[in-house]
Amino acid sequence: MFRRVYLDNSATTPVDREVVAAMLPFFSEKFGNASSIHFFGQEARGAVDKARHQVAELINARPNEIVFTSGGTEANNLAIRGLIEANEKYGKHIITSAIEHSAVREVCQDLEKRGYAVTYLPVYEDGIVKIEDVSDAIREDTILVSVMTANNEIGTIQPVEEIGRLVRRRRENGKKIWFHTDAVQAVGKIPVDVEAIGCDLLSVSAHKIHAPKGIGALYARRGVRLHSQNIGGHQERERRGGTESVPFIVAFGKACELAKNNLAESQIILKNLRDKFEQAVGEIISDFEFNGNRENRLPHISNISFCTIEGEGLLINLDLQGVAVSTGSACSSGSLEPSPVIRALGRDDELARGAIRFSFGKENTAADLEYVLEVLPKAIENLRRLSPNRLKQAAK
Q: In 3D, which of 223, 257, 253, 255 has the Cα closest to residue 237?
């Protein structure tokens, strides 16, 4: 029986009903501008303050360290550009990894055009940065280290606590250096604690945790100077100008509250779904490779390269069967180039092009899994039968 199964929860998630209920009044009855001093404005201000506490509690931060943004991309831009512009006298060298999201990678590439030097750390076959490489890359003019908490395509968790300790030691010895981590995929999926990580800046996005698109936050540790990237308003303690989107902020806060309360149970459920899926794939499909570390990763992501087929073809074939998956980051959708994340693992172009990301969510069921495992082998078999690569191999 044809059914719709959504396995692209790393791209975005459906908005939780409780989140919708929390935000709806702020479109109509409670419509005030949070910067206004009258009753309507202060009602909105109270809701924003409550949400700020809810976001802060999820990552063990102080409420005044939370800066609301339009999403993870803006949070990353504010973190990187804002930090270096406010502190550029201390250096013009940035360290990042070869598998960062484009919202970090392309910012760094743009800064290179402006005269900044950037070191892109390798991740090797397991998809994890080595702390020794981070240490070796730090120079006299290094101002910022930006390494994601967990990768959005393969789910590998980076040694961010070790990086945080390394950066703190350098700073204690008198060096002006800061640490930013893009935690967009990790927050709400695994425990994320800014004090345990020791980061100065951390990016979060709401639509990855069952809140609307268009809202996110940057954690900025007390004392960290940022140059605002949105000029023209005094909101967010002058770190991000612009009228606050009160309904979306309220929704974000509620989603963080739910994520915090349900985190332990959610981890178990998602990991069980993923592990059952991967075990079944290993039993019913041949010629594939799992991408990234199998242990040290997020509980909801499975990235698999199927040999001799194009990932885009498999994605389309599955979509026709009602199953939504991804070939990589949603932000790079439409690109014909092999995923730079999969290539960074040492995979050749064929395996990189054959990579599919299956990302599970709280609404997925055992019945969903059964359906996917029914249509997936057939789709792969059909594509391989027509594959030029398989025909070449057969000819040999």
A: 223
> What one-character DSSP code corresponds to residue 301?
E
CATH number assigned to the domain comprising residue 332: 3.90.1150.10
Taking only the tens place, the pLDDT of each residue in 218-249 is 999 999 999 999 998 889 988 999 999 999 99
- pLDDT tens-digit profile of 37-87? 999 999 999 999 999 999 999 999 999 999 999 999 999 999 999 999 999
pTM, rounded to two decimals: 0.94
Both 268 and 324 in one domain: the answer is yes
| Alpha carbon 26 to its chain's center | 28
Q: Which band of pLDDT confidence, cut at 50, 70 and 90, is reported for residue 386?
A: confident
The answer on 230 and 165 residing in a single domain is yes
In single-letter form, the type of residue at position 342 comes to I
CATH code assigned at 167: 3.40.640.10
User: Is there a catalytic annotation at residue 108?
Assistant: no
Nearest to 152, CA basis, from 183, 122, 110: 183
Q: Are residues 211 and 286 in the same domain?
A: no
Instruction: Please count the structural domains in the chain.
Output: 2
Checking 118-123 for CB contacts under 8 A at 24+ apart, the result is 118/93, 118/94, 119/93, 119/94, 119/95, 120/96, 121/95, 121/96, 121/97, 121/147, 122/98, 122/344, 123/97, 123/98, 123/99, 123/156, 123/344, 123/345
Active-site option among 108, 199, 307, 331: 331
